Amino acid sequence: MTSGIIRESLEQGESYLDGLRESRVSGSPTPEEIRSHLGARYPFTEPVGAKRLVSDVGAMLERWAVHTVHPRYFGYFNPTPLPEAIAADVLAACYNPQLAVWSHGPAAVEIEQHVLRWMAGRLGLPEGRTAAHFTSGGSEANLTATIAALTAKLPGYGVSGVSGQNDEPVVYHSAAAHDSFTKICHMTGIGRRALHVVPVDGSLRLDVGALRERIVADRGDGCRPVMVVATAGTTAAGVIDPLDEVAAVCREHDLWFHIDAAWGGAALLSPVLRRHFAGIEAADSITCDAHKWLSVTMGAGMFFSRHPRILEEAFRVTTDYMPDPDAGSVDPFTTSAQWSRRFIGLRLFMALAALGESGYAEMIDHQAEMGRYMRRRLTEEGWIHRSETPLPVCCVSHPAIDGAPDAVDRVLRDVLERGRVWISKVELGEYQALRACVTSRLTREDDVDVLVEELNDAVAGLGT
Ligand SMILES: *Cc1c(COP(=O)(O)O)cnc(C)c1O
After folding, report:
1. How confident is the model over 259-282, as pLDDT tens digits?
2. Which residues lie below 8 Å from residue 105, measured CB to CB, with a gap of 6+?
């Protein structure tokens, strides 16, 4: 029999989620405080009983964390997970299928492929001819895109790496793109200087004219342009790059066109928001996280590409110990970066099955609506928007802050210390701004009102 620890854990987790709205969004512990608790309670010399263990772990997670699942967490793209996704996590952990090869987890592999085919269709990629897999997150998906692009565009890359190249491979993204590509350039061996950062225009979108000029200049300079990354929903300001124009540049210059839609991709499920993504169907590959706006638990990214053969080339390997592939099936370890891996996709499958596509669209539209409400309320209260986007994120400043040294930091510190809401700050070109994103499906108008109140109070307190 299993011990009661699973049931205890579920009860603990449920009572946390049920009491969420009444609690603070964050605390501010020191490393010493946590380490001394761990040192005193867990020398690992005596077994700790299930009840005590679960309640203490729950207490630690409750006390010493930013509560990213809270409806008044207006921070990065961390959702309040759907209950179906949590349930899927539990089931996946119990059955613990192994997804390296099809033959070990036929149901699991097929469930993932079923939901990925559906999602590929929503992203505008050709059904049946799109390769897709779940990843640990957006960073792994972006890494996969870069490996695929290098494999597709550089003859010999797979065998000799960059040392076999006459020209230095380079990749492009805008100054507002996600910094995972810095690490990716380091990891793939093309080096950090291979990342050519293109300026943004006045709307914080990738400047396509500047991109064209840079590509031509680089060609003349002994570089080999390989890939352009457009972002559909930038991390700081939710801006969508001009996807169709970037697609045209990639066509002209025979470059791999990757779209990083880690957060924003979910908006394609909304009939209202879809139109802002014109051009996405031209992508060679797309990153879209399920653990951001699709509201499943952490550790669920997705990678899509219209070039299955390139993935087979990039990740194929033969071993003398893995089982032979079954006819008509694909072994995930031969087309993706991971080997032994968790059943990541069950969360999106169960959430989607339970809500239906229209339920998902409603959830996303609700958050977009809360974003519009937040934008309106902040404007009414004299806040100045530093960015425009149809997606629910605001980057704002205030006349009482602008130009005052440290004022943004002081407002931020004040808001976080009070702990009623959680926000962050960003730099957008020459401006510092406060950033608030509707990332919880539970956020309501009265939560946004609390945010506005907290911001106003913090600004009013600046002079005191
Ligand atoms: C969050 C994010 C990433 C990184 O994804 P992880 O899931 O955190 O690894 C990449 N690109 C964009 C645009 C993001 O917002």
Report:
1. 999 999 999 999 999 999 999 999
2. 97, 98, 99, 343
